């Protein structure tokens, strides 16, 4: 009995005080030391299971292509990719982050998929001295450092995804200025993402002089949208903005055709519906519908799509693969720039130095446009956003992706 | 078929069943997905293991059925059953060479063909290779019966340990990394994959240990069964120390899993009062969890109800709000119990399920958004602070949950043996009789619902502080279902059963985490097989075991007493 | 021991209550009054405000009936199994999914071959038959593997295997057909509307409603008028006695699962042509819960009850939020439609603990 207790106590002491101090490291929050044959380890946290598993599939694919293009090597070492399922929930994010944080070889993470998961993962990642670059968190709170205003930012957080503030505002601008809408209604589905997006859209639309006549919500799993659409039809808006996902978005679009009063209402969605199966499943109701989303049209992007098709078959399942690709490249570039090779062939990477290097990312030419990080980790500038129009070609002939008919970058250029 | 003698018919039939299982794992994509995961580095993958497992198993089963120890016949049967089990996959190879099945069955792709034909393609060599390999696998399965009992036990145990260590490589790494430095660790594992040398080492060590152990037991006999009090106290003391040091021993990632298990133990203890003791079929336990979490969230964060002092910090801290959460949950439990007191059985189940959904939808609603955050949830819930130390991270929160669990276990065990507890059990057995015996059933049921809600509220409050942010999506029907499942899988009405059930239903899915999309599939399969194998649960109370087995195969009681 | 029953007066906050009444009774009556008052206030203020036209109310009613028909068809499967085995087949929603999900591929190929457009009714019948076959197979396998060995176990044990089987089925079909959303093709004749009085009702809604009615009558006839129906009823009354009377209980139970499964599969195709989008492995979960609610609402174990419960639920969902919550000034009323549905459920069960058409008997030993 006493022996057991003593043994356990001894083990306890070993853990508590046996922490090693490394001679080479002068970084304030610690270093990662790679022995001569160690790989470079980076992580991915994304929704790999559950209803939005397609988001995870999309991001992981983007990261894998980024790695493939480097032949899986950085600093002449093999890149080891650790994937953790962060689901799309706060508890999933925290569990995944704990897993990542328990491995002190991991330099940084691409993830998470959902803002809700990031909110609980970020404190863990930040405290571990690591960094995370999200390809698809869009909540404004995550890059807001002002806690009193609801900001969640902590050191080590970056994203290549566009802040909701950009996309929501763009949708409002487009509806008001280009479509000439005077009134708008919005629908969300109880997801923090869609709720945030519609809130920004409605706010901007109102501020710019438009009239927001209705803000409502459906529930995930609903199939019958008659009730909410009839309510909207009592005061028909010029534009109906529903930045929600499949299949609820399909039901809203399809069933709006049968509601008297909504004949002249223009339908507008967001990147949640910017997936190949949407127009096909929704049918004629989708023709003439606008979708806001990331604007990817460069030649690089076509090459990327070809590579995706070869590697995984078909088209990417969602709209954030290019953001994940850029995130992985930013991380790997930063690793290359701060790594210090020792005489014994080992490599030392300072964690604060790595964060500084990512923060200093400037004019990174990515697939999603030119990326420059601000001090709270917003690296996308919102220029690489555009409005897509679904036409007969997408619905009947399976053309995908649809054409971008308007983008902020081009509109800005026209103004000049 | 008619010309086959019965044992051969059994061989063909079980072979076909095994083949069906193999075909199933192929079609749902499990084989290919698992093929990316090596069990032992550079040796064999989990997919290959899964491919031959049904054949081995069926070879072993057919061998077990044949009574006479005719070695050649035994092996032949094993071989034939293995070959038969390859037929469905052979058919798949054949069909996929003619038609492109992938337009419907997304997993029938080149990777699958490559795997099941052992890199030989859809032609004849691939087919022969598949049939031959599975035949040999079946033969190996049958061969197990020819090994003498003692070495057989040792061999199988050693194999199981080796495969277990390989499959649960991530767990092994988490545990070992607490004790070994990186150099030593890298001798064992490359990431989560076991290397061949340590795999062989595990095999040999377990083999020898098992042989030694069986030899030791045989020579020394079964002595020392009578346990002294000292030994018992030592055990309890050892367990206590182990519980206290556990988070330090297993590291933060596994501690995180432990805290989740702890929260479910808490909820299981609460629900056990309603379902296990009073027989109230509650499918909406998430209500209490949500109420506790939201009370903690709303009061300690900086929302409208979080009263701030001059420094901009909320006045309420974790410890102040913890009892409040508990009381609010009990109060909600009481209020919601009132309308459902008259309902029984499944009517009660659906009504409580409705309450759970109502709470979730209210939490999500734009209507209550100004108070409880709606879809955006509640952010900035502060971590508990104990004597100036912020209890952030699972290794520290573990102690709060451990304390709460011990308290709840203590209260539950006292309730179990109390007058109230017996009233509840009487209601569970027969409400009408209980009422006739003078028990105020309405009051007893109200009490059961109210007390049952307490630990749910407690678990919710700790959950909120643990995450720091809560969203309505965390409070869905699956929580209720999980809590109910764990108390039944553990063994209804049994306190140790709840702990075992929580370990199984919450801990195991975490171990299966790396199998992502197949996690819930394995989880469902496990629930079904566990209930089929042990309907009374893993660690049932004596009363419940008798009840379950009453009408079952053993039926120990004479007919007249069956209704007792 | 003889018990003399003394009339004890219950007290609420120290005040004696009328004989035979407990505090619980009072609270429940108060609850009833509050809920009914809220409904009346909400509804009347909505109607007085006049935001919705009469035509819109009618359109909502028909939409609700159509949605309710789907719930009802699934609810029939719950009710049949419950009537015979007194168990909740929690995986029944996934049996519905199995038929709907598998048949979507056949439906697409029928459309590509042009058969669906040339012979729409025949094609839909074929698809319904195919889906019924798939769902029936799944339901029968489910009974054989997950439920039969536990027939004598306590009621909660098969519930757990049912939950496990539900996960199993969902993720099996996800593995087979992928996680993306599929859609049924649309048929020309279902896209139109028919003018009924002041409004135009979509043909699809009428199609759903009529199909459900026809299927329910077939089932009712089967149970009430045929030999095997008689055997089913006898098994539901008392399994032992039924065995003594020469009824093959196992066979009847399998038959019940088969019928319930077939109805769910047919419902899957009907649903597919009514709401073509959103076909994936998870599509059975919410309809399953709604149908279960509907079955309980109508009185579980009762066939017309399941039908009535389903329709009631569908109509409440369609009309409730706009009628009641809008009037109470609650924003995003539509978000809370399930709150209304479940509150109505509790209200109905307070008035009639055995459901709308349930028999007293089932309440006593349920």
Describe the structure using short key phrases:
A: 416 residues; alpha/beta; seven-stranded mixed sheet; 14 helices; 40% helix; B: mainly alpha; two-stranded antiparallel sheet; two-stranded antiparallel ribbon; disordered C terminus
Beta strands of chain B, count:
6
What kind of sheet is the major sheet of chain C?
A: 2 strands, antiparallel
* Strands ordered across the widest β-sheet of chain C: 1-2
Biggest β-sheet: strands ordered side by side in the sheet of chain B: 1-2
Low-pLDDT parts of chain C are 1-8, 361-366
The coarse silhouette of chain B is globular
Largest sheet of chain B: 2 strands, antiparallel
Low-confidence stretches of chain B: 552-564
Written description of the protein model:
With 416 residues, chain A is of the alpha/beta class. Chain A is 40% helix and 19% strand. Chain A is built from 14 helices and 18 strands. About 3% of the residues of chain A have low confidence. Helices cover 70% and strands 2% of the residues of chain B. Chain B has a two-stranded antiparallel sheet. Chain B has a two-stranded antiparallel ribbon with strand order 3-4. Chain B has a two-stranded antiparallel ribbon with strand order 5-6. In chain B, helix 13 crosses helix 20. Chains in contact: A-B, A-C, B-C. At the B-C interface, helix 14, helix 15, helix 21, helix 23 and helix 24 of B face helix 1, helix 6, helix 12 and helix 14 of C.
